[in-house]
Amino acid sequence: MRSLLLFIAAALFSIGVPATPATDFEIPVGDQTHSMLALSQNGPVYVDFWASWCGPCRRSFPFMNQLVQDFGDKGLTVVAINLDVDKQDADRFLTEFPANFAIVYDPDFTLAEAYQVGGMPSSYLIHRGEIIETHVGFRPKDAEQTRETLTRLLP
């Protein structure tokens, strides 16, 4: 039933919504945590919601790793929020598809509901506390749009 609801929500979810305020959450970085909204004041934050059972997520992880490589030193923060109820499922996925960015676990869907996630993966580009770009699913044209936006935002 949840899958059907996610599918319906994805069909209704608007792509390229005008900037709206983003919900804050803590991002683990090394031994510390940082406020996502505070980080977004210093540079864009790419937030991606994913699950181990998500086929397109297998393609989005290499893309996010490449974003970190290309834009991380220019101020981009990437964080992936996992929605698996069982953390072991996420851990197995990460063994196969390693991440060189922060992972946050949201098994009770608190952040997913706050961001009105409509499908897997769902990504949000946040700058100065505002959601400036959203995508449901993972398609090459969306990835290219995100790269173009980051090129404009970052020196």
TrEMBL record:
Signal peptide span: 1-19
InterPro entries: Redoxin, Thioredoxin-like_sf, Thioredoxin_domain, Thioredoxin_ResA/DsbE_sf
Alphabetized PROSITE patterns for the sequence: THIOREDOXIN_2 (PS51352)
Keyword Isomerase listed: yes
Annotated source species: Ferrimonas sediminum
A single GO molecular function term of this UniProt record: oxidoreductase activity
Record keywords, A-Z: Isomerase, Signal
Record bears the keyword Ribonucleoprotein: no
Pfam families with a match to the protein in the record: Redoxin
Source species, domain of life: Bacteria
Protein name: Thiol-disulfide isomerase or thioredoxin
Positions of the Thioredoxin domain: 4-155
